Structure formats: C-alpha cells, structure tokens
From TrEMBL:
A Pfam family matched in the record: THUMP
Catalysed reactions listed for this entry: guanosine(2069) in 23S rRNA + S-adenosyl-L-methionine = N(2)-methylguanosine(2069) in 23S rRNA + S-adenosyl-L-homocysteine + H(+); guanosine(2445) in 23S rRNA + S-adenosyl-L-methionine = N(2)-methylguanosine(2445) in 23S rRNA + S-adenosyl-L-homocysteine + H(+)
Record's function text: Specifically methylates the guanine in position 2445 (m2G2445) and the guanine in position 2069 (m7G2069) of 23S rRNA.
Subcellular location: Cytoplasm
Organism: Zobellella iuensis
Name the record gives this protein: Ribosomal RNA large subunit methyltransferase K/L
Family affiliation: Belongs to the methyltransferase superfamily. RlmKL family.
Record flagged with keyword Plastid: no
Amino acid sequence: MLPFFATCPKGLESLLTDELHSLGAAELQETVAGVAFKGELATAYRACMWSRLASRIMLQLADFTMRDDMDLYLGAANIEWEQHIQPGQTFAVDFSGGNNAITNTQYGALKIKDAIVDRLTKRRGERPSVDKRAPDIRILAHLKRNQLSITLDLSGPALHQRGYRQQAGEAPLKENLAAAILLRSGWDKSSPLVDPMCGSGTLLIEAALMAADQAPGLLRPRFGFMAWSGHDDALWQQVKAEATVRATRGLKQAVPHLYGFDQDQRVLGFARDNAEAAGVGPLVHFGQGSVETLTNPAEQPGWLISNPPYGERLSEFPSLLGLHQHLGDKLRDQFKGWQVSLISSSPELLSCLRLRHEKTYKLFNGALACELRNYRIAEDARAARPVAEDFANRLSKNLKALEKWARSEQLDCYRLYDADLPEYNAAIDRYRDHLVIQEYAAPKTIPEHKARARFFDLVQATMAVTGVPGGKVVLKVRSRQQGKEQYEKLDRREQWMEVQEHNARLLVNLYDYLDTGLFLDHRPIRKRLGELARGKDFLNLFAYTGTATVHAGLGGAKSTTTVDMSRTYLAWAERNMQLNGLRGRAHQFVQADCLSWLSQPGTDYDLIFVDPPTFSNSKRMEDSFDVQRDHIELLHLLSKRLRPDGLLIFSNNKRNFKMDLDALAELGLSATNISKASLPKDFARNPQIHNCWEIRWSPQA
C-alpha cells in the first residue's frame, strides 16, 4: 500500500476520516487540517473523484529530520524523482512551515528545486524546467519543527473547485465547507432542504450532488496525477466510469425538493447557471425573495440550512441584526418541526434568532473562525419574548416625551437615550429618520462577550421601539480620542444629510467620523449666540464644523471669524454657512492652531465662543493642551481680543472642571456659571455633559 495525505479545512478532520474510510483508505491518522492514510492507487483515485471534503490528495514521497539546509538538500536529492517526473515536463515546489534553519519559505522551495534539478540533470543529462504558474507536476513540502514532509500533489487544482461554479456572489462558501455543513446538519437526502439566502447556490448544489449520488470530481477536466509518471490511466477510467453510471442512475432517482431564495436577482442567475453546469438544475428550485417575505415551500418538515451574512464592519451590524430577528421570527412561524443549521463568524448575531441550539461545531471559512449551530424548531414554538424589556420600556418613555418637544422646537436631531440604565451603556441620537447609537466602552470587569451581547440586545430593542430599519441605524464605539484621532475617518461614504436646528440648516455626516458634525448638547448655547450676535463681530474658536457661526450669522452678526486647525472641518463649516446663505467677506475662515493664532496681533471681537478640547496636542503650551491646566492661559489670550463691553462664552466637556476664579479675577475678568441653563431637555439626565461660563470684564477692571 502507498502512503497518502489528504488536506482539508480545519474542523473537518473527523468527517474526512470517515469519508476516506468509506472509500477504502486504511491506517488513517488525523492531524490538524488533514488526514494521513494508506491505500492502493485506486483508493487515491476514488478519493480524488469522490471526496466532498478534502482540499488535496497527495502521495507522500519522503519524511525525514531536517536540521539545516544541507539536510534539506540531501533529503530531497535522495528521492527518485526520475520515477515521478517525465522528460520534458515542468514542475514547481511549494514550501510551507519553517524552523531555526529555514525561516524563509522561498529559500526552502529553492533548495528542494535545486536538489530535483541536480538529480534529474545528472541521470538524464537534461535540465528540467520550472513553471510556477501551471506546472505539470507540483511538489509540496511542509516543515514542522525539524520534521520535513515532501509530497506529490495528485489533485492539481484544489478539490473544492468542482468545475461547476461559473460565477459567484460576494464571499461564497467553498464547496467542501458547504458539503461539511450539510453533513454536520444531519440532513436526510430524502427530505426537503431550504436555503433562504442561497447566494450563488453552493449549499444547494452540493446537496443536489449528494442526492443524485454524483461524484464531486466528475466534472473536473484535469487532476494532478494525469501528468505523473506513476499514473494508471486504465484504472482511472474504471473509477470514472463507475462514477458516471452512479450519477446517471442517481439523477433519475433523485426527488427535486431543494429550494433556494435570494433577494438579488443577479446572484440568483449565477445560482441557476451553476446548478445547470453541475448537471443538477432540475433538482433545485430558485426564487427571488427576502427573509422578510419567506414562506415555507415544502409540504413536509425538512431542513433549513444557510450561510447568512455576518459582516466584518460595525456599520453593517444593524441591518444584520434586523435580518436575524426576521429570520428567527420566520422560523418560529413558518418552519415548525424543522431542523435548522446556520453558520456564522458572529455568535452574537446567531443569538439574535432567540432560538436554543442543540449542537455547535467549530468550522473555518478560509481563515475566518465560524460556528455552525444546529436547531430544532419545536412544533409549539411561540413568538420570542421582547428583547431587553427594561431598556425598551425606558426608550419608549423617552421617545414619547421628546418627539412632540422636538417638533415644536424645529429640531431634527436630539438625544433619545444616554446610558439611562447602567447595564445598557450607550447613547442614542436621532437624526431625522436615522439613529446613531454610540456604545460607551464597557468596564474591564464586564466580560467582552457579555457586553457585546447586551449591546446587540440594545440595538435590536431600539429598532423595535423606534421602527427605524437597520439600514438607517449607525453604530459607533466611543472612547477617548487623542491627538489627531478625532479627525481620522471611520468610513468613506461621503454621505451627507441636511438637518434643521431651530432656524438653521446644517450638514451632518453620520458615517465617516466618530462625531457627526453637530454637538447636540450645545444646542441652547448656539441658540443664545444667535440671539446675542446682532450687529456684533463674532469669533468662533476651536470651531469644529462652524455650527455656532451659522447661528451667529443668522442672528445678524456684522462679521464672523471661524478658526480651527482641521482643514476638513473648516471646509465643512464653510459649507454650513453657504447652506444658510451666509457668504462674503464678512465671514472669514482661518485654518490655524488656535493658540498660536491667538498669540498673534489681530482683530477684537464683541462676542466670542470657545469650546476647546479636553486635551489636545498643540505647538504652544509645552506641546500639549489640557483644559484644566491651561484654561487661564487660554482665557488670557482671548481677553486680549475681547472688547470692553464684549462677552466670551467658554464651554468644555471635562467632567469636574474647576474654573480658577481667582486667577480669572487677576486678569480683570468675572465668570458666571450657566451650565445648568445651557443644558437642553434631551440631556437633562446628564448634567455633566458639559460646563459653560459667561465671561465679561469685571466692572472695576
């Protein structure tokens, strides 16, 4: 018997062992992502033809200890390559792994290539050629610690490439993983099978091949062993003829009870073409439809098996949460008594089904770790209980209290919820018909999986209470921003929304930055600036997107000056002004480090608004700015620009900020704390969201 090795995705080793045993393999031994076995050449041929799980079948040529590159060369040169590579054929070497002596896979492959070339040149007097792209013979070498294994690839292209896939949608399952999912699900080939998100149809086509007893390798035009010197074509033709007979008989006997649905008509076209190419088109019914419109197409209980989307970006999760909610509801309503198997890289999304799973299997979709969960939908399955009931009740109460108020104030944007309940630690803001949900970083004492599950529950409940669909829910994680992080993009959608705030029209961007361009808690301050600005010269320092300047301009300011260090935000401020018809030389925009700019001689102002960051890097003040440490220096610089009857409104978001009133008095200034008065109704529960001061020249100054 000959020694062989079969590779497979991690997690499929035991399934592959059973499959190879059924094909006649002996002395099977599982390793990580593979199974070693022995058998006759016919066994290897049957494995190439019939294995639904293997990635490659390889003939083991040598296995030896390798401590340095000389061991590598001599060990490879000792293999009888003339028995495997015919004159005139090309070959290539793929090398993986390493040890202290071989740390570069290209170098390892080069040493083996040299050994092969030297041996064949010496014995034949003819130097063989290397073809890395499409060799006749491919040699695979793997080094683990000091043990090197050299094999000859009998498969050619990886065995998951059955030959039927003409086109595919995004992130398709590999065919051998799809087969493994079917096997792990326990699907009975005589029972109905539904895939409600079938994409390009891989799961259903693999199921049809199983139901029709069609070998997955039957459609492949080429295998690696066909160019191998040891190939027995007559034996291979026997294996192929047997597979052909079984497929012909199986297709006639198979019952067409496979159903696939997808909302993308284009991808469904791919699925139909792929099924026809596989020869199982008559066995699969494809139809357009979403999870929301899913109905049970079968007359008897069966299996629902699918690979729902699971996304990799936080911004994708609201829609995915909604999809999984709908799927769970449909399963309870339409598929009572059915078996369900779903694979996902996000256990939290599967938890949104609100179903109890019976078994879990760890699988890998490429390098992505996934879970396959098997469920049984009870005959008496009832609607799932509401998610996060306490939170949902609080949000519903807040919504009722704020909606009417916001309409009366002409506000498109307001805060609905701000960590009202400690276990649901997030802020929820409404922007017209969109929601922005900002998750606050959980304390380190709370396990990450628990915090994530609670956050997902919060998002689900928010969508249920507000009726806002997942596509209009934006998720963000809020933590302290340092240096230039506050200016860095999260996304690149460039998707702008115009919103109303009292008499102002403003642009927000819900996706691209951590902040949206509008600090909602400063709304009363902006309104007051508009009321105070008529006929005055106004300065907005650390201006962000210039929303305060807009209100001052609409209030009749004689001139406005908007200063910020960010070119992005300054351009945003200019767009906000133009949106409100505020153009011309009276409105100046200055890109500069605010503290450096203040240090230079310049214009005096009647009305100044300054909202500095809690902490920032700066070219002044010892290379950093801390609002608690440096606020007096900042106010000193501002006082040089404040006219005798002027007003300076100073705000910041540092909790427990302490104004140094004595130092302020030494500057000839007096301050009045207006923090409580500047707090809007929707932030009433969070009095520390900001603090705000009106600063004037003291009467005696």
